[in-house]
Write a structure and sequence with these properties.
The complex is a heterodimer of chains A (about 160) and B (about 200). Chain A has one domain: 60s Ribosomal Protein L30, Chain: A, CATH 3.30.1330. Helices cover about 20% and strands about 35% of the residues of chain A. Chain A contains two helices and ten strands. Chain A has a five-stranded mixed β-sheet, with no helix packed on it. In chain A, strands 2-5-4-6-7 form a five-stranded mixed β-sheet, covered by helices on one side. In chain A, β8 and β9 form a beta hairpin. Chain B is built from six helices and eight strands, in the order αββαββααββαββα. In chain B, strands 1, 2, 3, 4, 5, 6, 7 and 8 form an eight-stranded antiparallel β-sheet that branches. In chain B, a hairpin with a 3-residue loop joins β3 and β4. In chain B, α1 (about 5-30) packs across α4 (about 105-130). The longest helix of chain B has 26 residues, at about 5-30. Chain B starts with 5 loop residues before the first helix and ends with a helix. The chains are: A alpha+beta (about 160), B alpha+beta (about 200). At the A-B interface, β3 of A face β3, β6 and α5 of B.
Chain lengths: ~160, ~200
Amino acid sequence: MESVVKVRMADYSICSEPQKITTIGLGSCVGIVVYDTNSKTCGMLHAMLPDSTKIRNNSNRSKFVDTGMEDMLKKLEQAGVNRKRLMAKIAGGAKMFDFIDDNENTSVGYQNVQAAKQVLKQLGIPLIAEDTGKNYGRTIVFDPASNELQIKAIGQEPMVI
Amino acid sequence: MERMDATELDILTEIGTIGAGNATTSLAVMLDSKLSMRIPKVSFMNFDDFVESIGGAENVIAGVMSNITGEIEGFVLFAMDIRDAHRLVNRLRGIDLSKEEMFTDIDLSAVKEIGNILIGSYLSSIGTLTGINIRPSNPVMSIDMAGAILSFPAIINSREHDEVLRIESEFEGEDLSIDGHIMFIADTESYMIIKSRLGL
């Protein structure tokens, strides 16, 4: 009964072994996976923007790293996961295009990754691995049975972190 | 969700038709091949549907994009499925159409230049039609998953909105199997400006 849960853009979802969870075509968005090795349960967030407090239109909470993480953790706790046991892996945050006024450190991809790291730190969730930045899109699949995050990108060797 | 009445929809469809019509005419001349255009699709879309709009988020495409500034803000994207981009380049180089080797630097700059010409011609006809001052940035290019490419304009729009206005024109070759997309992407404010400048 293997099945793969698909996470949409500006959304999150959770699943448990033997299910896997995936999101497709992460560009400058960031994918944040948190997982509990005991219960083999995990959540994945596909966030578009770093910080809901800097935006007027912030009702769509899963669009942002900060509010998206808050909601996803609540949902994991409702599923019986102890948030103190969570660990994290992140991917994405690419700089897809070279527009002139958009350098590496101001690119939205970079900001998304920084926000993800900051929020994880605040929550006390250790970041175990990451594959972020660069200039290409990524499709990611997480398996809560093995805690492996598979990353596929066009023109790159598939990798596992 | 922003609603459009039938007149507004007609007029935006016409904008897509005229913009893409002029653009594909210039491409047809370069290719010495007939291209036919489908009726543009105009809609407000949520981000998730938007990133699926060129053959699915995981479909590999060649995309050339300009950022528009000036009175309105948005993006124009010229995109083709990667196999179609190969056929396009091969046709221009006069070599076997079915070759799908890695793009050379010359191939890539050819695709970018075609995108540049199409985007320029698309925007200049829209500018003339609406009287709106439109300034396109230099085009940028990427070969990647459609979802990753489209996520960029989606993110820029997502700062203020949860949907984008998309005018999508699609053309296809008559004797050459290529399918191309020209997409005008704007936010609600720009849509209101376009409407008011057209007297709607």
